[in-house]
Amino acid sequence: AQSVTQLDSHVSVSEGTPVLLRCNYSSSYSPSLFWYVQHPNKGLQLLLKYTSAATLVKGINGFEAEFKKSETSFHLTKPSAHMSDAAEYFCVVSDRGSGNTPLVFGKGTRLSVIA
Amino acid sequence: ETGVTQTPRHLVMGMTNKKSLKCEQHLGHNAMYWYKQSAKKPLELMFVYNFKEQTENNSVPSRFSPECPNSSHLFLHLHTLQPEDSALYLCASSQESSGGVQETQYFGPGTRLLVL
User: Residue B71: CB partners within 8 Å, gap ≥ 6?
Assistant: First the structure.
């Protein structure tokens, strides 16, 4: 069975500084990994996903994440935070090769960006 | 973004009411999902429909009743709800293949439900 742990419930950064949102996963098979973002009163939007190609995945709005199998991690980064990045971020895992398994969501990390 | 729409966006209902949430996807996908998002809890998968067949029911109470009349529409019928059912209900869709790879899910904006 798969699971995902987002290590920080809240991260606060200053505008223009780097962002790091941490995620560790557990998976019985080769995982698919996703990061979604949710702005206030909005649905979830896909930022990026990893499905076994390049381990460094680039997403929208300058975000990227690196799949590290040895560390079972899939941390989300961005070189320079923007005020519009303030939102809730969800790390998501799904086992591939075990049928149509559902997505498992982390509890979320709230990102605050200070001017 | 109008790929997945949900109505209503907000709903207040009493415990004895009956109401329905509606979801429509305009992406040509073959799978649709209902999720419940409560404060300080992970997103909970409620129901999955694949090619209009329900393939997942995550021990959801019978006061929640899904309906999928076609691959573009999904309903969640609500009756005799409890205050703890107050949450954001999210609908999603995806294009699933038979290869076992979980495809990207596209989410609607959600219905904010308050049960009094």
Answer: B29, B30, B32, B51, B52
